[in-house]
Amino acid sequence: MKVVYASNDQYARHLGVSLYSLMDHNKEAGELHVYILSMGFSSESRTRLLAIGELFGREITIIELGDLKERFSFEVNTGGFDLSIMARLFVGEVLPETVERVLYLDCDTVVLSSLQRLWETELGPYMLGAVMEPTIYPSVKEEIGLLPEAPYFNSGVLLIDMKQWRQSDVQKMLLDFYCSMGGTLFAGDQDTLNGALKGRIKPLSPRYNFFTNYKYFRYSHLVRLSPVYKTVSKASFEEAKRHPVIVHYMGDERPWKKGNLNPYRRAYDHYLSLTPWAKTAKEKGSCLYMVAYHLMNYGTFLCPPFRDFVSRHFGMRMINSRKGS
How far apart are CA 239 and CA 248, in angstroms? Predict the structure, then answer.
């Protein structure tokens, strides 16, 4: 199994949590080689991450990408996100040619079960596998040329056929698409992958990338927001809620923030306690906002149109503010 992460030094702690959980739940894997795409790791972060690999007897290769801006031939504006989110677009260029398949994981994920079945998923003619994100704003899909009925995928977990990726020169396809969008999109890497590779992404079970804020969403509400989500059965969605294989801490209710009430926070806290970052204090200054966000999540379950109202009035403001930043 070949796994890749990408991170700057600020997110190294969260990467360490995900990395530890990955290795803890995949002890039976015959091979587990992790590649970490670094954007300015400190020597301390490098030492700590490599120590996790040594603890499990697994190989970790850290690849320093340096200033990612230099890899773009055009001006890039990620709208407030760190440029490190774009690193996954360059996997074909920076990973060894011998890597023919890779599983990409975001740093803000925690693995809760073996990934062997995911790793062995047959992709067939598809370039990669990913999990649908039905709550994406319609305006985002429209901007990147997706029809309303088309699926939109989250880029937090990607099973990539690297052989096809290189043969089709996907990196050029992605950069050309991003350039055609003026180098600025709401979710830079994610929108680029969806726009450039539409029709070439295989839907995966939501268990493999369960967004923690979906705990509060009803299946019927998600289908109403994106009818193509019917291809995911209600039973599959409910199973993902109860027994996710990979949890993805999307939304603002992050488990490393003081006062958060994320229902999956214990998984993060548990693995943090086992890493070299164990004594890191939670980020302060957002307790009241955490309470308000949690109340909004409960409102989503009790009254789905409430979430729609919040998205329409505040979500679009966020999109427009990022475009202007």
Answer: 16
